[in-house]
Amino acid sequence: MRSDGPGATPDPAPGLGFGDRLIWVIIALYWLTNFALAWATDFSIHRLDIFALPLAILLPNVLFYAWRGIVLPFELTYCLVRYYALGAGALTLSYLAVLTPMPLADPPLARADAALGFDWRDWHGVVTYHPWLHAAFTFAYNSMQAQIILCLVGFPLLGRRRRADEMAWAFVLSVTSTLALSTFLPAESAWAYFGYAPNEPSSTLLQFLALRGGEMRELAPPNLGGVVTFPSYHAVWAILLPWLLRGTWLFLPALLLNATMLGASVSEGGHYLVDIIGGAAVAGATIVIIRLVPILTRPAGNQVDNA
Amino acid sequence: MPRIVQLSLVWLVVAALYVLLSVQEGFAIPTNGCGPAGSLPCSVPEPGSLSLLVTGVAATLYIFRRRK
After folding, report:
1. Which residues are A218's β-sheet partners?
2. Running DSSP on this structure, what letter comes out for residue A303?
3. A263: Cβ contacts below 8 Å, ≥ 6 apart
4. Which of A74, A142, A289, A305 has its CB 3.0 to 4.6 Å from that of A300, i.e. a possible disulfide?
C-alpha cells in the first residue's frame, strides 16, 4: 500500500478504527432516537430523501475503493459519508427536540446577558450603524459551512487522516452536547426576544415557532437550517476550526476569520452573549476530550498530523 | 484505454448525473437560510452536488493512483 504524503507512515489498508466504529454506533443511536421520537410525536421525516441521495452516490464509492485498497479516494468519500450520515441525524434531532414541552429560555438568557453588563440592542445598533462591520460579520458568519466542507474534503485529500478523525469526533461531541443543552433550554433567539423578528423573520425562527405551535408536522428540506439558540453552534465551530487547522499555514487566516465569526454570532445569528460563551465551553470540552482519549482517532497518516 | 479518455468519461458521467439530478431534485442553487434576517445565503454546495463532485475527484485520484 502506498503512503499518502511526505514522511507518511505505512498505511495498512483503507479501513475503520475503534473510533470509527464508535461513531457509526452513535450515528445509529441518533437515527433510532429520531425514528422513535417521530413515531411518538406523529412527526413525519419521510422527506429526508435529500440526505439519502448523497449517501446513495457516495456509499458505492466507499465500498469500491475499500475493495480496491486505494487509500486516498477511500478516505475522501468515506469522510463525506460519515459527515452526512451524522449531520442528517443531528439536524433531524435538533428539530424533533423542539417538540419537547420545555419552557422558553429567552428570559433567563437575556437576564444572564444583563448580569454580564451586555446589552444586545446596543450591540445590534453598533453593527447596523457601521455597514463595513455588518458586511464583515455577514461574510464571516456565512463562511462556516464552507470552512467545514473545505476541511472535510481537504484533510483526506492531503492525507491528514488523524485530523479528519479529529474533525469527525469534534462534530460528534459538539453536536451531541449542543443538542442536549438546547433541548432543555429552547429559545427563540435574542433577535425575536428584543422585538426585531416581526420585520425580518428568519426561516429558522418561523420553523421554531411552527414546531412549538404544532403547525409544522414534517421536516421540509431544503430549508433546514437548524433551530438551536443556546449554545451557539457557530461559536462552537469558530473555535474548533482554527484548532483543527493548527500547525498549517491556514491557521492564522482561520483564526482571524473565526474570531470575526464569533463576534458576528451575536448580531448575525441573533444569539445572546451567553450563547457564545456556552458555545465556547462546548468547543473547549470537545477539544479536551479528543486530546485525552487518543483511541478515538486512527494513527497519523502524515507527519503533519502529529502537530 | 488512455488516461485522458478515462478522465473524460468520468467527468462526462458526473456532469450528466449532475444535470439529471439538478433537474429532478432542484438542488442547483443552495438556498438554506442562515441567520435571523433570512436573507443571508449559505453559499455551500448542496449535499447531492457535493457528493457528485467528490465522486469525480475520487475517480480521478483512482485513475492516477492505479496507473502508478
Report:
1. A44
2. G
3. A137, A140
4. A305
Non-local CB neighbours of A135 within 8 Å, separated by 6+ positions: none
Query: Rounded CA gap, A259 and A140, in Å?
Result: 9
B37 closest CB neighbour out of A153, A202, A224: A202
Q: Do the interacting molecules here have an ipTM over 0.95?
A: no
For an interface test with B, which of A11, A47, A48, A57 has the most B Cβ atoms less than 10 Å from its Cβ?
Answer: A57
CB-based contacts of A290, cutoff 8 Å, min separation 6: A166, A169, A170, A173, A296, A297
- Contacts of B25 by beta carbon, 8 Å cutoff, 6+ apart: A50, A53, B48
Looking at residue A113, its pLDDT comes to 95
Task: Give the 3-state secondary structure of residue B41.
Answer: strand
What DSSP designation does B33 have? B
pTM: 0.86
Closest by alpha carbon to A166, among A91, A247, A92, A100? A247
**CA gap A185, A102 in Å, rounded:** 7
Query: Which residues is B33 bridged to in the sheet?
Result: B41
pLDDT in tens, A269-283: 889 999 999 999 999
Quote the CA–CA distance of A217 and A199 in Å, as a whole number. 25
With beta carbons under 8 A apart, name residues in chain B contacting A61.
Answer: 54-55, 58-59
One-letter amino acid of A203: S
The shortest CB-CB distance from B58 to any of A73, A142, A223 is to A73
Distance from the A293 Cα atom to the nearest Cα atom in chain B, whole angstroms: 30
Structure letter (DSSP) for residue A47: T
Residue type, position A37, single letter = L
Q: Read off the pLDDT of residues A94-103 as tens digits, 9 standing for 90 and up.
A: 989 988 889 9
Chain B residue numbers touching A205 (CB-CB < 8 A)? 36, 38
Cβ-defined contact of A149 to B66 (cutoff 8 Å): no
Cα separation of A240 and A283, whole Å? Answer: 6
Chain B residues whose CB is inside 8 A of the A224 CB are: 32
Identify all chain B residues contacting A58, using CB atoms and an 8 Å cutoff. 51, 54-55
